[in-house]
Amino acid sequence: MNRKKTTIEDVAARAGISRQTVSRVLNDRGVVARETRARVLAAIKALDYRPNASARSLASRRTYLLGILTADLSDYTHARILEGAETAAREHGYLMFISGAERSLTGEPLHSRLLSQHQAEGLFIIYHGADCDSYLIFDDIPRDLPVVTIGYAQDRENVVKVGIANSQAARWATEHLLRLGHRRIAHITGPQEMYESQERRLGYVEALRQAGVVPEDCWVAVGDWSSASGYRAVLELLDRSPGFTALFAQNDRMALGALQALRKSGLQVPQDVAVVGFDDIPLAAYFAPPLTTVHHPFYEVGSRGAGLLIDLIDGLPAPSAPVHLETELVIRCSCGARSKSVPMH
Amino acid sequence: MNRKKTTIEDVAARAGISRQTVSRVLNDRGVVARETRARVLAAIKALDYRPNASARSLASRRTYLLGILTADLSDYTHARILEGAETAAREHGYLMFISGAERSLTGEPLHSRLLSQHQAEGLFIIYHGADCDSYLIFDDIPRDLPVVTIGYAQDRENVVKVGIANSQAARWATEHLLRLGHRRIAHITGPQEMYESQERRLGYVEALRQAGVVPEDCWVAVGDWSSASGYRAVLELLDRSPGFTALFAQNDRMALGALQALRKSGLQVPQDVAVVGFDDIPLAAYFAPPLTTVHHPFYEVGSRGAGLLIDLIDGLPAPSAPVHLETELVIRCSCGARSKSVPMH
DNA sequence: TTGTAGGCGTTATCAT
DNA sequence: ATGATAACGCCTACAA
Question: Disulfide engineering: B328 pairs with which of A158, A280, A314, B343, CB 3.0-4.6 Å?
């Protein structure tokens, strides 16, 4: 931080002009004589001048900073959303900083410092904490701060929800199994208090009902998104209510655990049990057997979300309904059907 | 950004004191009367005052910003390092900005905005581009900017390399296979031009040599870290030089692809071919069969790296040698040995 | 122990 | 079309 930086004043001097005019060409504001502009541009290039962001935002009250809040960045689904969001943000001239949502010992949420000190102009919440903390995050967010969120969204102004139509997608996945002739379809959900879990479970239940199958709670096991929980869930299901011929897991990681539990229990997939997952993480194509799953467009959710966030910042009205991107059912080997991709719409 | 923020002046007024004293208690600089300090603190809390970071860094010439450069954030290995780095940075009061390292059409590296405009005080490079772009990144980095890097590091001041002892770890993995009686051990590497690939391959070769086995190029296939490339590599090896009884893949994703190719070729793991991977991603324990692999302490690499970066910023001398964290061999089922973890040191 | 003056690098506002 | 002047919110240095 100690090396001497060239300032707008240096550029002005070299171009033989006032710093105001330099500022003008920098921000494309006001009219500048063609020739003057050229001189300024030349000076900028010659001096390799970069405007100081701190000074800029201090004077202009704009930071072009977006905060992103998430638990568990190492989970592919979040990381991929982040990737999409960051790329879109960068393309729009915004910078993205990341932050967990932990609270300090005093109970003050750590991200509030980020938001208010660094003056983030918007917040992208990709939360996925195992507990319901996500619902509390909103308490610490100023009402007038534009927010985009995946999953749960408080119903208030300046908050937009992006994602997929979870229940519809889950219904498609279940219907696929139904269409293949299955009637006893087990289900592994995420944590019960989570929005996505509830929505996906709803889709599963609806599909069964519509097919005239009575959904029984004994076919549903609760996991926590991890492979280990998927493994345990299958063991539990096998013990509690054996006889299911198909299994729909609410994410691919749990499906992977399930696959292993099934294998260890001597059950063949898809011959004995057909399995369908959710998310379509890159490794799913290499599971044993390759997993039939719902493709979740994470990257697009991220970039779209960032776009919406920037729209909010620009004062555009928030969409009246959650923004849903399209999913599709990727049929591979774990369900016994012929491989293909089926767009859901 | 338009809502009225409370400033240091407001706090000073409420505490009936000059803003200078407020600044003092804020920064813990100089001596402040116990009672005055209490009044100031009370005012701060009452007004919910947060110092403006832009103004602060403009005046103090400190930003407490760290940039993180990476390709492919959705890859677990990077995301996990990022997670460790971000957590450590936050604990030290630094903020972490993420940025890809792409160049704009004009050839200007996009991350330069981070460095020169936002005045990042340090840079954490987790690069892993499939090509050798990583080697070029350094060209755009000011010589006096503290840098921490994983993998390749230019040998210059203010650059610290963190990571693991790749060749040593690879040697251990190979020796494990050797110890199990294997002599014809195939190997799948990452892109040839990459540092990690070269180091790991070196370890593999050394282990063979030391065991009196002549390393043959025909047993080595080159991948690109992806599962697909691992799959192809096995097909290629099987075609070109069948007869290997063991396989060491330079990362778990390629190992997963390899597992599938082996399975499709009618080969059983570990009975026909023993497989060892590298990284120990969370899903590896659920591969079929569960993968024996080298545990790579990504999170710790990230947090340690951030710590070192902050040390550099604080003017501490850079470690004279690369900082290596400990790996361990996690023995599961894919190699045929009894499960356990073996620290490598 | 506390206050005053000046400046950090930029943009906003109002002149010219 | 360009320039002068005054902020923006804070910190440093020095004075009291």
Answer: B343
Which residue is nearest nucleotide D8, judged by alpha carbon to C1' distance? A59
Span B65-163+299-314 CATH architecture: 3-Layer(aba) Sandwich (3.40)
pLDDT reading at B257 higher than 70: yes
Q: In the prediction, which pLDDT does A111 show?
A: 67
Residues A186-208, mean pLDDT to the nearest whole number: 95
Q: Which of chain B's residues have a Cβ under 8 Å away from the Cβ of A97?
A: 95-98
The pLDDT of residue A99: 79
Q: Is the bond preceding residue B289 a cis peptide, omega within 30 degrees?
A: yes
Residue of B77, B102, B111, B118 to mutate for A, most A C-beta atoms under 10 A? B118
Predicted pLDDT at A102: 62
**Taking CB atoms and an 8 Å limit, are B286 and A260 in contact across chains?**
yes
Domain B166-295+328-344 has what CATH class?
A: alpha beta
User: Taking Cα atoms as reference points, which of B253, B75, B295 lies closest to residue A78?
Assistant: B75
Residues B2-33 have pLDDT tens digits of 446 789 999 999 999 988 999 999 988 878 88
CA–C1' span, A59 to D14, in Å?
27
Residue A30 tokens read as 């006001």
Residues 6+ apart with CB under 8 A from A304: A84, A88, A162, A323, A325
pTM: 0.93
Burial A19-53 (b: 16+ CB within 10 A, else e): bebbbbbbeeeeebeeebbebbeebbeeeebbbbb
Q: What pLDDT does A345 receive?
A: 63
Rounded mean pLDDT of chain A? 90
Q: Residue B128 — pLDDT band, cuts 50, 70, 90?
A: low
Round and report the angstrom distance from CA (A20) to C1' (D3). Answer: 7
User: Within 13 A of B126's CA, how many CA atoms are on the CB side?
Assistant: 32
What's the CATH architecture for A8-60?
Orthogonal Bundle (1.10)
Partner-chain residue, chosen from B53, B114, B299, that has the shortest CB–CB distance to A119: B53
Q: Where are the domains of chain A?
A: 8-60, 65-163+299-314, 166-295+328-344
Question: Which among B2, B116, B263 is the nearest to A50, CB-wise?
Answer: B116
A74 and B83 within 8 Å at the Cβ level: the answer is: yes
Single-letter amino acid code for the residue at B339: S
Q: What is the mean pLDDT of residues B99-121?
A: 68
DSSP-H helix ranges across A48-132: 53-60, 76-91, 110-117
